[in-house]
From TrEMBL:
<dbReference type="Pfam" id="PF08240">
    <property type="entry name" value="ADH_N"/>
</dbReference>
<dbReference type="InterPro" id="IPR013154">
    <property type="entry name" value="ADH-like_N"/>
</dbReference>
<dbReference type="InterPro" id="IPR011032">
    <property type="entry name" value="GroES-like_sf"/>
</dbReference>
<feature type="domain" description="Alcohol dehydrogenase-like C-terminal">
    <location>
        <begin position="170"/>
        <end position="302"/>
    </location>
</feature>
<dbReference type="Pfam" id="PF00107">
    <property type="entry name" value="ADH_zinc_N"/>
</dbReference>
<protein>
    <submittedName>
        <fullName>Alcohol dehydrogenase</fullName>
    </submittedName>
</protein>
<feature type="domain" description="Alcohol dehydrogenase-like N-terminal">
    <location>
        <begin position="23"/>
        <end position="130"/>
    </location>
</feature>
<dbReference type="GO" id="GO:0008270">
    <property type="term" value="F:zinc ion binding"/>
</dbReference>
<dbReference type="InterPro" id="IPR002328">
    <property type="entry name" value="ADH_Zn_CS"/>
</dbReference>
<dbReference type="InterPro" id="IPR036291">
    <property type="entry name" value="NAD(P)-bd_dom_sf"/>
</dbReference>
<keyword id="KW-0479">Metal-binding</keyword>
<keyword id="KW-0862">Zinc</keyword>
<dbReference type="GO" id="GO:0016491">
    <property type="term" value="F:oxidoreductase activity"/>
</dbReference>
<comment type="similarity">
    <text>Belongs to the zinc-containing alcohol dehydrogenase family.</text>
</comment>
<keyword id="KW-0560">Oxidoreductase</keyword>
<dbReference type="InterPro" id="IPR013149">
    <property type="entry name" value="ADH-like_C"/>
</dbReference>
<dbReference type="InterPro" id="IPR050129">
    <property type="entry name" value="Zn_alcohol_dh"/>
</dbReference>
Amino acid sequence: MKAAVLYEKNHIVYKDMEIRKCQPDEVKVKVMAAGICGSDTHKMIQKWKYDLPAIMGHEFSGYVVEKGSKVTDVNIGERVVGIPFLPCRKCEYCLRGQYSLCDHYGMIGSKSYGAFAEFVNIKATNILSIGNMDFEDAAMIEPSAVALHGVLNIRPQIGDVVAVFGVGTIGMLVIQWLKIAGVKEIIAIDISDKKLQDAVKIGCEKVINPLKEDLVAKIHQYTNEMGVDIALECAGSKVTQEQCLLVTRKQGKVGYLGIAYSDVTLSEKAFENIFRKELILKGFWNCYSSPFPGKEWSNTIEFAKAGKIKLKDFISHRFALRDTQYAFNMMIERQEEYNKVMIIPNKE
């Protein structure tokens, strides 16, 4: 098969690779769409800790072209989404059904070959049927599940005012789920005016660009000096990770979905707010619950099919598999403003 193979820091080669036959419990998926996650770019240039050469890509969909001898409940030609997380199913957290916290998980696209390739092998327990769902929509199920995992577990109440920091792919998906959850008002915060305009289009009542306005003052103006009920950090920036603590009301909630890629140093005021305001801080990792992979995944599929949540609308760029290196260069060097970048390994 053809694959985009990572050999070292931001060095990807488009080449022929051997792909083994399916193991008895696996299926082989012909990859029709695979998204580049923000974590892919960071892991590749900062903290790649897995074996090289590697094939990245963990947000993907396609259809089954081969199945192992023990696979009986999957059909050849079935349209599926891949679930990249491989829980051990033996540790304390797996036995509790807290799969996102598994101590010994595997991961398609980092610990094993992923979907920036024409085909990928995956356990039959790690696919879900998508019916007639568009392949690009289906490749967005994983990031949507990440967003929903955060929203479900921060437990917004009807009437809440929520600040969403960072309105890239995850932030935009979070906004949609918050609207479905019944919050009263969402304040989108980003340094890109274009992304803020997009947030308004999907229902954000207010937006703030902190490069142009005083963030804390503006939040106080919008909330009658109270602060927001919930602040959700979706940018993975040490700046916004602190700002969440400055704009949340007393006994409010702060949820962290963005990954910290550098040390976070808090100002005295931000740290004092945690205890003086009795804030509740929660972190959200991955997107899995019981029964595996969880309602984060099943709800995304059901709501997307019903037209209640938009997925592929947030795809800004599409690249052929042979152009994967170009796609990463564009993102890492920020040559263009982008949202979700999709690799298309095979044409329909």
